């Protein structure tokens, strides 16, 4: 008939010209929330609104501050912005455990300098560089990021 529609899988669907109306009434109290619970919902959402934070590695922070000039690092204790020229020795010192003295001469195998050189190199080539600590490597390289696909390369930094 003209009211039957044939689907690709062989099933038929028939549409009725008569529309039937039915009202469903629930007697259950499970669907009724007390007004006191509804009033507090907005307060909880507002409190959770700013709970997210951004955590950068030392290399990411220095790349954004020095390499791109798009990040300012703020010192809470002195209430000032740390310039990239002062940020470099600070991050160098914190790349050692326990943190070393910033007056120590710069060595070719300095942990921060080596890892930053690798990070900066691959970022400059357009790679998305992420920590590979979960996989036993120093860095993972992604074309677009971990959300879109698996890492294309795993990097182990070996200072010479």
TrEMBL record:
Annotated GO MF terms: nucleic acid binding; tRNA-intron lyase activity
EC number: 4.6.1.16
GO CC annotation terms, alphabetical: cytoplasm; tRNA-intron endonuclease complex
Catalytic reactions of this protein: pretRNA = a 3'-half-tRNA molecule with a 5'-OH end + a 5'-half-tRNA molecule with a 2',3'-cyclic phosphate end + an intron with a 2',3'-cyclic phosphate and a 5'-hydroxyl terminus
Top-rank lineage group of the source organism: Eukaryota
Family: Belongs to the tRNA-intron endonuclease family.
Protein name (database record): tRNA-intron lyase
Species: Aspergillus sclerotialis
């Amino acid at each position: 008939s003209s009211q039957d529609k044939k689907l690709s899988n062989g099933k038929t669907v028939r549409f009725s010209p008569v529309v039937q109306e039915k009202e469903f009434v629930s007697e259950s109290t499970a669907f009724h929330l007390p007004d006191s619970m509804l009033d507090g919902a907005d307060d909880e959402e507002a409190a959770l609104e700013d709970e997210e934070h951004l955590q950068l590695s030392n290399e990411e922070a220095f790349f954004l501050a020095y390499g791109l000039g798009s990040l300012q690092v703020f010192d809470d204790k002195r209430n000032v912005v740390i310039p990239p020229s002062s940020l470099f020795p600070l991050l160098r010192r914190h790349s050692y455990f326990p943190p070393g003295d910033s007056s120590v001469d710069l060595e070719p195998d300095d942990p921060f300098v080596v890892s930053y050189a690798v990070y900066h190199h691959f970022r400059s080539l357009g790679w998305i560089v992420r920590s590979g600590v979960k996989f036993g490597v120093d860095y993972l390289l992604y074309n677009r990021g971990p959300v879109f696909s698996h890492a294309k390369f795993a990097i182990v930094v070996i200072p010479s």
